[in-house]
Structure formats: C-alpha cells, structure tokens
Amino acid sequence: MTIQTSICPRCGKPSEEGLCPECRAADVRLLTCEPYVTAVYCPVCESQKRGKTWSDLQMPREDLVAEMAVSAVSIHEDAKDIQVTVRGEEIASNRTACTVEVGANLYGIPVRETCSTEIRWQKESCDRCSRISGGYYEGIVQVRATGRKINAYEREVAATIAQQAEESLQQSGDRFSFISDLEDTKDGVDITVGTQHLGQEISRTITGALGGRFTTHPKLVGEKDGKALYRITYSIRLPFYQKGDVVTSRGSYFEVRDIDGQHLRVFDLQSGTARTLNEGEVERLIGNVREAESALVVFTQPDLVGLMDPKTYLTREVNPVPWTFPVEGQPIRVLRDEEQDRLVIVG
C-alpha cells in the first residue's frame, strides 16, 4: 500500500482510499428539506388527498403531521440506521411549522442534522362530497310492505342495515357507496344511494332479514363515454306477515319463522314442531313475539301451569307446552290473545 492511498490527504489520518470516513461525512449534507409541503383534506368528511387520489384512511393529527413533514425531507442515499424525530408547532389555523431531526450513520460515522419545513393545510371538497352536494345518485331503495304499512321495527331495521352496508363498503375502499338521503315516508322508507352496488347490497340484506322480495327498475338518464347511464329503483316488498308474528290456524297458535312467497314456515307453539302453512290457512294474527309480556310462573303441574297475568295480577291457568320448562317464581314470555282472552306461551 502506498503512502498516498493510506493517508487522508485532508487530515492525515489513516485512510483506505482517499478521504477518511470523518472527512467524507463532513463533506456530505445528510438531509435537505423542502420549504413547505401541502396537505389537502376535505373539511366535510376529513378524507385526505394523496396525489390525485382521495383516501378515507384516518390517523391522529400528530401522526399525519409527522408523515407530511417527513415527505418534505430528502436523506442522503449513503445514510444507514436512520432515526427521525419531528416536532410540530401550529402557527396558524392552516399552517404547521415542523423541525425534522435526523440521526444516522454515514460511512460508519454517527451524524445528526436538523432542518425546517412547513405544512400548509388546504381545504378541498373531496370527490364523494362533491357528488353528494351536487345531488348525484345512482339508485333509490324503496321499502314497502304488501297489504299494510311497514311498522317502526321494520323502519329501524331497514335504516340500520342501510347504514351498516354503507360503512362496510366504504371501509373496503368503495368511496362512492354513500347514502345521500334516508327518508321516512308514510308508506315506508326511501334510501337514496350513490352506487348500484350499494343499492343491491341493501336490498339483498333487508329482504334477508325481514323477508319479501325486491325487483329492479332501471331508467336511462344519459350517456357517458359511449356508455348508457341508468338510475335504478330497488322496489322491496315485505310480506304481509313478519318474522315473529303469532297466528292462529284451526285453533292452534303458530309463530312465523320465515316467509317464502305464499308459504309460511312456522313453529307450532303447542307441540314445539316446525311446519309450513299457506297464507290462506291463517285465520287470525294476534301479535308479534317482540310484543311479548313477562308473566310470573305461580305453580306448575304435569298438565297445568299457573301464570300471574301481568295486567290484572290474577292467576291464569294455561296448558303446559313440551318445549318450555317453566320454573315457579321465574318469568316466562307470553302473548295476549285479546279475542280469546288467553295468554299464549311464546318462550
């Protein structure tokens, strides 16, 4: 090895080739910062714009500040074992001053530098909120019932299902699957949706939960890029009978468990067995198990059960049913048949 290649020409320290690590590190700038970086966000839904794409990914403010500040920093390509610290200070409602400190190994020498940048917060209506404010929609889900008006329970279930479907699709990245309007009408519920995918999902889930069928009715509204544009009405018809309805047929009581067209899959509240009824076989509707009352079991005998009427507090005798196990002093659920002045055990 020659003297020229074994000695650093600047400081005289031993060097394998040219400048020693300390002198090389001293000649290199570890990091540079852009004077500012712009963070674009939607003031309505707080989604963030990354490049040309809007994202619903939410993060704490301090994490977002750190991410934006780091995006303004360039670190030397030879740096190893990099550690970054960001300190931010709100200097205005739309400006955050940041100090970025970087520690690293450069040619085996520990180095540390700081630089400053500024985050400028810019408000912009996102693609989804722009559609909503502009009245854009691709379909309406209309929830109605056959031969009756839908009740408060069905309205609540329909609204909950719609909101859950919207949240689920948006979390999966389908930003335009929004509900722009959810209206209670005298006949039912109208749900205005931003995509046909959401309309289909809401309709499928509501009929799965409440029974019935839905049909689609597309309407041509224009053309874009040579493709026809349609708005679709999803017409849901809930059945006349609901899940949980208790009906009578030939003197017996049945709880409706499912509806398939004109056929009711029911549970025999006396024998505890399942069977099928045609709608034409139903004589009366006495109520729904959601309306059941709690009656105290006064006594039990092999062929008789005494219940305290929750309205009159008098003891009423009913026939035991094999699928329940009443216990004296414990409550049991009953439905009141006003026409027959009878308590019907429903569970």
What's this model, at a glance?
By secondary structure, this protein is α+β, with helices and mostly antiparallel strands. It has six helices and 23 strands.
Q: Which helices and strands occur, and which strands form pairs?
A:
Blueprint: H1 3-6, H2 21-27, E1 31-33, E2 37-41, E3 48-50, E4 53-55, H3 61-71, E5 73-75, E6 79-92, E7 95-106, E8 109-123, H4 127-133, E9 139-145, H5 152-171, E10 179-184, E11 189-193, H6 196-210, E12 213-224, E13 227-238, E14 245-249, E15 252-260, E16 263-268, E17 274-278, E18 284-288, E19 293-301, E20 304-308, E21 315-318, E22 331-337, E23 342-345
Parallel strand pairs: 2-8, 9-13
Antiparallel strand pairs: 1-5, 2-3, 3-4, 6-7, 7-8, 9-11, 10-11, 12-13, 14-15, 14-18, 15-16, 16-17, 19-20, 19-22, 20-21, 22-23
Structure, explained:
The chain is of the alpha+beta class. It has helices spanning 3-6, 21-27, 61-71, 127-133, 152-171, 196-210, and strands spanning 31-33, 37-41, 48-50, 53-55, 73-75, 79-92, 95-106, 109-123, 139-145, 179-184, 189-193, 213-224, 227-238, 245-249, 252-260, 263-268, 274-278, 284-288, 293-301, 304-308, 315-318, 331-337, 342-345. The strands form five sheets. It has a six-stranded mixed beta sheet, sandwiched between helices. The chain folds into three domains: 21-123, no CATH class; 135-238; 245-345, no CATH class.
